[in-house]
C-alpha cells in the first residue's frame, strides 16, 4: 500500500516537472550557442535538447552573420524532436514573433519603426523591420516618384506603419509619411521666416508647362509662367533651366496650405508705366507678331508690352479671312496705336491704318466718268462685281448693263472671268462702295431719239408692222406701239388694217419714260387735241355752227 502511494507521488512529480520544464512547441525559448559548423549554429535550448539554425538567420539584410560560440540567443521552437532526435528551432521565426509584438505596440501608439529596404517586388519594395517583413508601395517611397531606389537599399531608416494584419502576416509601411511630416515641419519653419515682398535666392527644381518650382531652402515655391517676365513667355524653359539659381520675390504666402507664390518680373520695372509716353495714340511703330487667334493677332511693341490687332483692323479689303492668312508668327509689321487702356493693360493696334485707304486712292486716280477695265469676279441677282486695283471691287447694277435690254436679260451675256470695260459713276469712300456702268460707255439711243420731244408734242412716225391689237411705229429708230383703241377718235376707224407698212402718220406724244425707255404715242389723242383747238378758234357753244362747219373752216384756213 505504501509502495503504491510512493509510485503515484513520483509519477505526479514527474508530470509536474515535465509540464514546468519542457518548453511548449510554438513558443520562443532561450538557448546557448555551443558550436558552429557547416554553416550552422548548434544551440542548446536546455532540457537536454539541441537544435541547428542556419547562420544566415543571424544576419540582417545586406550584412554578415553576427554570432559566436557562447552567445545566448532566442529561438523559436517548432518541434521538440525530429527524426534525428534534434529540436527543430528557428532564429528567424523568433525574431519575427518578437518583432510582431514590438510592431503591434508601435502601430497602436502610431510610433515610427526602423527598418531597411532589402528587396524589390511588384508594385514596391520589401522592408525588414527587425525580423518582420513589410511591404513598401512604390507610391510611399518618397514625396515624388523615385526613378532609382538603389541608394535607399540596405539603409536603416524610419518608417510609418500604415496597416498590419498578424493573422495574415501583412504589414504595409510608408517612408513618404515620415518625409512629409519632417518636410511639413521644415516648411513651417522656413515659411515663418518669409514675408510677402521679400527677395530671396532659390534653385529651380522642376519645370512644367505652367511654371517652375523653386527650392527656397527646404520649401518649394511656384513661379508661374505669367510672373517670370513682363513679356509673353510661351514655355518656362525659354528663360529657366533645372538647377539654376534665381532671384525671386515672395508674392504671396498661404499660411494654411503652406503654398508660396513667387515672381521674377516684380524685380523689374513695369513697362506699362511708360506705355502712354512711348506709344501715343496715332503713332506708328514696328512690332513682332507673337500670337495669332481667330479674332486677331497680338503684336509685341517692346518686351512686356503687347497690343491686339483686331481682325477688323488688319486689312482694308480682306474682311472674312483668318488673321493667319494675313500675318504670320514672328513677322515684323508696322502698326498704328489706336487706343490705350493702362488699367486693363490693353493696347488696340491697327495694321490697315499703316496703308492708304484703297478707296481713297481709287477716287483720286479714277474720277467719276473715267473708264476702267477689270475681270468679272462674281455675278449676283442684282449685278456684276468687277475686280479693280488694290483688291477692291466695283459693282455694275442690272440697270447699268444695257440701254436696250432689261437687266435680267443683259446679265445673261456675262460669265465669271470675263474682262469688261465700264465707266465710274460713283465712289463712296465711307461705305467703301464703287458704282460702275457698262451702258454709259455707249450713247443713249433713247435720249438721242426723243431729244426735244415732250408730252403733248405732235410727231410723225412710220408704220413698221400691222397687228390685230394695233400697229407698231418708229420714230428716229425708237419703236413704239399704238393700241387699237388709240388708232382713231371714232370707233369705226379704230381698224389696224386701214394702215399699211411704210405709211407716215402724225401722232400725239402722251408719255416719255426715260426709265423704261418707252415713248407713248396716240392718233386718237392727236385728233381730240385738234378738235379742241378748232372749237376754240373757229366756233363756240352759242354760235350755232355745226362741228362739220368748224372743222371745214379750220381745214380751209390751213389750206
Descriptive account of the structure:
The protein has helices at 2-21, 91-108, 176-192, 275-278, 358-365, 407-410, 445-449, 523-538, 547-558, and strands at 27-37, 40-46, 49-54, 72-79, 88-90, 112-121, 124-128, 133-137, 156-165, 170-174, 199-207, 211-215, 220-224, 245-254, 259-263, 284-293, 296-302, 305-310, 332-341, 346-350, 371-380, 383-387, 393-397, 419-428, 433-437, 458-467, 470-475, 478-483, 504-513, 518-522. It is an alpha+beta fold and 559 residues long. It folds into six domains: 25-109, OB fold (Dihydrolipoamide Acetyltransferase, E2P); 110-180, OB fold (Dihydrolipoamide Acetyltransferase, E2P); 194-267, Nucleic acid-binding proteins (OB fold (Dihydrolipoamide Acetyltransferase, E2P), Beta Barrel); 273-354, Nucleic acid-binding proteins (OB fold (Dihydrolipoamide Acetyltransferase, E2P), Beta Barrel), CATH 2.40.50.140; 358-441, Beta Barrel (OB fold (Dihydrolipoamide Acetyltransferase, E2P)), CATH 2.40.50; 449-537, Nucleic acid-binding proteins (OB fold (Dihydrolipoamide Acetyltransferase, E2P)), CATH 2.40.50. The chain has a five-stranded antiparallel β-sheet. Strands 8-7-6-9-10 form a five-stranded antiparallel β-sheet. The longest helix is centred in the first third of the chain and has 20 residues, at 2-21. It starts with a helix and ends with a helix. The model has no long low-confidence stretch (mean pLDDT 81). It holds the Pfam family S1. This is 30S ribosomal protein S1. GO terms for molecular function: mRNA binding; structural constituent of ribosome.
